[in-house]
Design brief:
about 375 residues, alpha/beta, Rossmann fold, 2 domains, six-stranded parallel beta sheet, 12 helices, 12 strands, Peripla_BP_I
Length: about 375
Amino acid sequence: MSFIKKFIEQETINRRNLLLASAYGLSGAAALRMFGAGAAHAAVENPTIAWSYRDRTNPYWNYIVYGGEAFVESLGLPKSALVNLINEGSSEKSLADVKALLAKDGNKVALAIDANDAPNCRPVVEAVAAAGAHVSTIWNKTDDLHPWDFGDNYVSHMTWSDEGPAEQTARILFDAMGKKGGVVHLGGIASNNPAVERLNGLKNALKDYPDIQLLDAQPADWDTQKANQIMASFLTRYGDEIKGVHCANDTIAYGVLEALRAEGIEGMPVVSYDGNERAVELVAKGEILATVFTNPYWGGGITAALAYYATIGAFKPSDEPHEHREFYGPTILITPKDALDFKAKYLDTNPTYDWKDFWGPSNGPIQYKS
């Protein structure tokens, strides 16, 4: 029997088994365990490399895509070879876009994705696995979803351990406030893992500052305009009680600073997260006290690389230890004393990375709270 005939027959069996499992009410992960996920997935030549993400108006996602493009160029391909699936903050669009690409290119898809929110990650992964394609995810997934439950199709998940760094920025903020007074927090999308962890980091720091009061915490959905509106409402409601602002990311901080300027307030202590270029410049000037860099350029490139090299059969994900399939990305705290040096090293020019060194800058296996 020819290879092609065998492959077609096995794909038919795989799809039939998934349909049967669905009829019995099994989840995608259970179905793949039941029928042996990845048993007959052959290496693919010239896969479709895709990145699915929120938008390019956010500097963070620009760096993610720049990294993806740099990886594609390392293969001798033009940047345009990277397929951009922009979900505009909609989990429904994220899943629909992925399914449309899978319907077109099937098992040739090598997908890198932030699923937009944690619950959306499972249907994305199940759709990829059912098509025999490969996916690597970042940031958002539920704790009960693991790559090793999907054979080789779910290649890897990378997130960042945000509680510790967010607690560091909170402590810097509280010290600048004189260790007393009211603080407000503006967060990301409520169901996003990083939004949850960054708020938890603030709450952890509060335990050691009895004279600091958390006046309010509201989701700003990672959006500058929404953050501006929320901060304006905080100022109306709490006025002079607010002595500091804890922001879940840099784009939120930009909206906060605009709201403060509109009220003629200068010197209010503010901290943020992400380490975008504009934010780092504001840190250097002392307008933001600290931000945290998660190296999105490396994250964007390596996530695409993992999906691609698994797709072409360069390595077999199921042969890797768990810490190579779920791992933390790197973080760097940036303060005024080191902001300019950091900018020169990481932002003025992008470092050169070996895209086959999948776990070099990573920061250990993901730890789950019991």
